[in-house]
Amino acid sequence: MVVLTEPDTDHLPIINNSCKSPSFFNDIPVIDLSKPDSKNLIVKACEEFGFFKVVNHDVPMEFISKLESEAIKFFSSPLSEKLKAGPADPFGYGNKQIGQSGDIGWVEYILLSTNCEFNYQKFASVLGVNPESIRAAVNDYVSAVKKMSCEILEKLAEGLKIHPTNVFSKLLKDEKSDSVFRLNHYPQCPDIQEFNVKNLIGFGEHTDPQIISVLRSNNTSGLQILLKMAIGFPCHLIRIHFSSMLATRCRYITYTHQILYLSNEIVEVMTNGRFKSVKHRVLTNTLKSRLSMIYFGGPPLSEKIAPLPSLMEGEESSLYKEFTWFEYKKSAFKSRLAENRLTLFEKFGAS
Ligand SMILES: C=C1C[C@]23C[C@@]1(O)CC[C@H]2[C@@]12CC[C@H](O)[C@@](C)(C(=O)O1)[C@H]2[C@@H]3C(=O)O
Ligand SMILES: O=C(O)CCC(=O)C(=O)O
Ligand SMILES: [Fe+2]
């Protein structure tokens, strides 16, 4: 059981109750990786949704359970202990503050670079265990998820008829791949009567910068994904951000658990905008706490990113300037969560 820390609710973004239908439908694309037609279905899901649920993958349940139980132990530790593994700069333990630009949410997390030893020591010292055992638990899980991610990316390239089919996967397989692993814990959140609201924002709306994100969560709802086809749907979600009020038109799909793949900003560039990165956010749950584990597969820092020539049709011109992942990441990590990070790299956009 996760022991709750009670972050104070001052200044946290909240969602107004008056919106009746931030859509609850569960008809999301499901990809069975063992099926031969999965390559075409992956392309279709990426084009139409930007995400899908994965079944019949080879990520062993024992790796998932082991890491989830270490995470539960970590987040159940006294706040004073957890703070010793922080602040998140960006790696380490973070509480309510997301990134370095003032975003906040009802969340605590641990962010690890998959190739930095120091991180594991911080994590392990809170649990009072040998860093080796934590490193092994993270490595087992991350290696299995990375293998699955490469399989998905190769099927994606095959479905797109790109040769060689390792154009995306080689970036993750590279020993210098700049990948990140994240554990998020959203403590159960009581109703906040004085605002007449039910949900606090756990993790504000954003797209993920890397190539792909693979998300696994416990059986607590909270993740919401903005449906591409529903942008402009007339449902008003009123978000109160500090003292300002923002009204947005949006329609979200609410997603509960298991393993989910999300298409990200770098894939949007490499496909010259054909696959859009998907906007998502997390709302807190009033009854249960939520735990999620996300692998963000990124390219090596020196990798040059540009639209793949094999995907450009006829006279189609590149929408983006070429940049290295280092340049992109440097700019992305200065941005606010909800910002469009690609604008700066568009050929015809503001620069
Ligand atoms: C506000 C921010 C947090 C973030 C870096 C950023 O400046 C903008 C992108 C955010 C994000 C979203 C996906 C991942 O959770 C993350 C680790 C990433 O690579 O980009 C976070 C960053 C973070 O939490 O530091
Ligand atoms: O915790 C989740 O379910 C999603 C979090 C997320 O989107 C992120 O960490 O980038
Ligand atoms: Fe995300």
Automatic annotation (TrEMBL):
<dbReference type="GO" id="GO:0002238">
    <property type="term" value="P:response to molecule of fungal origin"/>
</dbReference>
<feature type="domain" description="Fe2OG dioxygenase">
    <location>
        <begin position="176"/>
        <end position="299"/>
    </location>
</feature>
<comment type="similarity">
    <text>Belongs to the iron/ascorbate-dependent oxidoreductase family.</text>
</comment>
<keyword id="KW-0847">Vitamin C</keyword>
<keyword id="KW-0408">Iron</keyword>
<dbReference type="GO" id="GO:0046872">
    <property type="term" value="F:metal ion binding"/>
</dbReference>
<dbReference type="GO" id="GO:0031418">
    <property type="term" value="F:L-ascorbic acid binding"/>
</dbReference>
<dbReference type="InterPro" id="IPR026992">
    <property type="entry name" value="DIOX_N"/>
</dbReference>
<dbReference type="GO" id="GO:0009805">
    <property type="term" value="P:coumarin biosynthetic process"/>
</dbReference>
<dbReference type="InterPro" id="IPR005123">
    <property type="entry name" value="Oxoglu/Fe-dep_dioxygenase_dom"/>
</dbReference>
<keyword id="KW-0560">Oxidoreductase</keyword>
<dbReference type="Pfam" id="PF03171">
    <property type="entry name" value="2OG-FeII_Oxy"/>
</dbReference>
<dbReference type="Pfam" id="PF14226">
    <property type="entry name" value="DIOX_N"/>
</dbReference>
<keyword id="KW-0479">Metal-binding</keyword>
<dbReference type="GO" id="GO:0016706">
    <property type="term" value="F:2-oxoglutarate-dependent dioxygenase activity"/>
</dbReference>
<dbReference type="InterPro" id="IPR027443">
    <property type="entry name" value="IPNS-like_sf"/>
</dbReference>
<dbReference type="InterPro" id="IPR050231">
    <property type="entry name" value="Iron_ascorbate_oxido_reductase"/>
</dbReference>
<dbReference type="InterPro" id="IPR044861">
    <property type="entry name" value="IPNS-like_FE2OG_OXY"/>
</dbReference>
<protein>
    <recommendedName>
        <fullName>Fe2OG dioxygenase domain-containing protein</fullName>
    </recommendedName>
</protein>
